[in-house]
Automatic annotation (TrEMBL), chain A:
It comes from the Bacteria. It is a peripheral membrane protein. Keywords: ATP-binding, Cell membrane, Ion transport, Iron, Iron transport, Membrane, Nucleotide-binding, Transport. Residues 4-240 form the ABC transporter domain. It is found in: Cell membrane. CDD domains: ABC_Iron-Siderophores_B12_Hemin. InterPro entries: AAA+_ATPase, ABC_transporter-like_ATP-bd, ABC_transporter-like_CS, P-loop_NTPase, Siderophore_ABC-ATPase. This is ABC transporter ATP-binding protein. Its main location: membrane. Pfam families: ABC_tran. SMART domains: AAA. SUPFAM superfamilies: P-loop containing nucleoside triphosphate hydrolases. One of its GO terms (molecular function) is ATP binding. It comes from Viridibacillus soli.
Amino acid sequence: MSVLTVDHIAVGYSNTVIIEELSAAIPEKKITTIIGPNGCGKSTLLKAVARILKTQKGAIFLDGRAIQQVSTKEIAKKLAILPQSAEAPPGLTIFELVSYGRFPHQRGFGTLKKEDLKHIHWAIEVTGLGELRDRPVEALSGGQRQRVWIAMALAQDTEILILDEPTTYLDLAHQLDILLLLKKLNEEEGKTIVMVLHDLNHASRFSHYMIAMKDGEIITEGEPKKVMKSENLKAVFDINAILMTCPFSQNPICLSYQLNKETECLLQTVE
Amino acid sequence: MTEENYISAYQQKKHRKNIFLILSVFILIIIMFMISMSTGFIRLTPMELIRTLFGMGTDKQNIILFDFRLPRIVISILVGMALAVSGSILQGVSRNALADPGILGINSGAGVAVMLFISFFPTTTAAPVFFLPILAFIGAGTTAILIYVLAYKRGEGISPTRLLLTGVAVAAGISAVMIVLTLRLSPENYQFVAVWMAGSIWGSNWSFVLALLPWILILLPIAYSKARVLNTLNLGEIPATGLGLAIEKERLILLAVAVGLAGASVSVSGGIGFIGLIAPHLARQLVGAKHQYLLPTAALVGSLLLITADTIGRWILEPSEVPAGIVVAVIGAPYFLYLLAKSKA
Ligand SMILES: Nc1ncnc2c1ncn2[C@@H]1O[C@H](COP(=O)(O)OP(=O)(O)O)[C@@H](O)[C@H]1O
Ligand SMILES: [Mg+2]
């Protein structure tokens, strides 16, 4: 079952088409990760799914309805997006920024109701920001800021969370922190998560479903065991990867890799 | 105490603090109001002032106060508010703390309309005083629409950055036109236009107040009702769309409100720069970036700044007057540079 389907879309920016034709079905209540080289259109795809970019052809269906036909506020109650680079305006506290996540549920002037406070509180606690809630956002470290934006998306109280590179710029431990949080949200709250990750091993370890893209097209998709194969990685990233099984997740991980052309050089010298 | 209670207690504390700050600015305005009323060529002692305000003054005192000073002070209060709120909206929508109503080409648009009129109908020197606001408003509105059309890009709508850049370019073009027009003006007319452009509130009378008041009464509540929308827009395009805001529509409404406020004020006071830039910035330092607090605070700070500037302008070179716009610029330009330096750092 899927609540989110991408049906033969073309999407791009003013004059350039980045994705010419792409279809995909995002499995419900699962973690889906998109991988692919820089500039292959991962963010473009996510932006189209989150109706930030209009599709030039085809349609995206949310709960069976084309998103162009649903009011943007209606969508915001079901789907939250964490952009790749977001910067809070100066002078906001963490509490205030997270409280903005309640926007689609509010009316009129925006006084926070009990229901709103409940979600804000939960979002702040689950992201471990309780102690910091009254601090200005600009006084936080990169990792903490990332968590504030995640908290804002959580306060939005949606079934679907879309995250573009949520772990980039974080150190190893904080990367795991975020991924474990997402895993917990998926397991305990049943949230559907779609994200872009650059770390293949994290992608393999934490996702139920992977989509590998190159040049605006899907090269292969499926569960990690199917996608994380050396021939796929060669096709997508142009690398020769040595794969083994992750002792934690039993999924394939990449032990080490070489650029394809490097390997060819090596083979030539051996000959 | 549960966490949720903690959050609401914290909110209430912050709310009380912000209300206190807003009231403080309000009290400063009242003090400045009193000082301004007694400042001028003919000084009034506080006692005389109070007696005149309560209808027990001499005829001369009545005329000075009610016909000259009071309308002028009321105009500064209204114009200060309008410019500050207009600036807050522009800064919120464009996510640029250096945005200012002047950048929308509103001041120069109003200026060129006034100049065109005076240079082609120089004989009607008596008429313009009442005709000016209407002309200026038409000029300001036309320029704003022109800039909007030029900055609009099909399929992408209007990007705030492009809007500001187009505004700067159009304003520069209009300045060039104005220089050419200057050549046509007689010295008296030139002086008139120059003082008007510099932003002066002298010559204000109650009909100016009446011309401005409806705009303020309609547009300020609209702006305030959009506080939540402004908060969201201020996060940037992608987060705002993600939160379910109809960006294009809301942006257009807010820009129209900002243009209306700035156009209405420039039409009665000429081009007063910097208030729309500084007032929102000071207000943000006081109460933070939430527009529910920011808008009213900025409005009051704007009023306070403009009354103060006008009072200083009246007093500093007595008996001549320095236009309030110039006083604001003298204070505002260094502040602008300071902001610029800080934003680069
Ligand atoms: N705002 C934009 N305007 C024009 N082209 C863009 C824009 N954003 C991205 N692109 C181009 O679209 C292509 C795909 O970008 P993107 O989807 O961001 O890649 P990634 O897979 O790294 O997220 C790139 O070639 C990029 O240069
Ligand atoms: Mg990207």
